[in-house]
Amino acid sequence: MRYTAEHKQATHARILAAAEKLFRAEGFSGASVERVMRAAGLTVGGFYAHFASKEALLAESLRAFMTANRTRWLSGLRTSRGPEFLERFARRYLDQYDRATGDTACMMPSLLSDLTRATPEVQAAFGQGLEELVGEAQAQLPAREGATPRQQMLATVALCFGAMTLARATASQPLAGEILDAARALLLAGAPVDEGAAAPRVPQARSARKKPH
Where is the HTH tetR-type domain (predicted)? Predict the structure, then answer.
């Protein structure tokens, strides 16, 4: 039975959606081809009509994820510049974390360790997604002393992905929420505080003296 191009495209999209959900929950090793196809409501034999390998599936999933989320993460932020832009971007990303369940809509916390051992094809797909995100966002960032717009955005993405990963790694502990709050606070932090002048002096209580009889 021959299927139409529209049917094949829809099936391809179903596989990608199922793969993204499993990659997010289980990482690369936990999302087997069999589990992905079962989640998509398809037979395992049909997988190779769409992807040459599981690594090719991961590469395409990363491209689709980064493209879709670049639009989502940057939508409505063009009126902001500099630190305000970075803070709004970070808040939007970090707010994906559900503090009650430890879940997040981002695949990165589950996949980052896998990407360190991934094939060049997979790493190139992720790198391209990062390049496109940073390239679009850096237009909102004036140069700062010691950091170019590109460096500011790369550091912010690294902080966000890292904080989300650490929060997932400590999801059962109060520390998870503290990590996310700390990431936001660092982006909002102002100039260094002069510790000598920061804390107002608190007058010490005078010891009571006995009145002479």
Answer: 9-69
Per the confidence metrics, is the pTM higher than 0.70?
Answer: yes
Dihedral of CA atoms 77, 78, 82, 84 in degrees, nearest 10, equals -30
Element (H, E) at 206: none
**DSSP output for 81-149:** -HHHHHHHHHHHHHTTS-TTT---S-SHHHHHHHHTT--HHHHHHHHHHHHHHHHHHGGG---BTTB-H
Q: Round to whole Å and give the CA distance between 98 and 21.
A: 16
> Among 50, 32, 58, 52, which residue's Cα sits nearest to residue 125?
58
d(CA 148, CA 126): 22
Region 118-125: mean pLDDT is: 96
- Token digits of residue 11: 């099936």
Spatial contact of 27 and 111, defined as CB atoms under 8 Å apart: yes
φ/ψ of 8, rounded to 5, equals -65, -40
The pLDDT tens digits for 55-81 are 999 999 999 999 999 999 999 999 999
Map out the domains of the chain with their CATH numbers. Answer: 54-189 (1.10.357.10)
Place of tokens 């196809």: 37
Amino acid symbol at 18? A
